Amino acid sequence: MLQLMNQLGMMLRQHTYEIAMMVMATLLVIYGDEVNGLVKRLVGKYPFIVRALVFVALCAFGYGYLLIGFTPILASWIYAIPLHLLGPAVLITLLVLGILAERKKQL
């Protein structure tokens, strides 16, 4: 059984960066609406052009920076997981993301 878990871990280890990006992108989708709402409340009193520029900057640069900046950090954490635990860790992470999405009415 341990050998099978290690083989699964070896297959997943090759895709550590993609797994980390998937987790980060999913979190941004789940919580992006709340961030947008907060920014909307902060800049709601400004003229349309300012609100539009802030929104574009948030989406293009803010979310992009979060995705590009934190993905390597998360990937290094995932890479540190022992091979035999990597498969269960990824599965549990996907389940937790699904539960979070369900609670936020994303599913």
Automatic annotation (TrEMBL):
Pfam families: DUF3392. The chain crosses the membrane at residues 12-31, 52-71, 77-101. InterPro entries: DUF3392. Keywords: Membrane, Transmembrane, Transmembrane helix. It comes from the Bacteria. This is DUF3392 domain-containing protein. It comes from Idiomarina fontislapidosi.
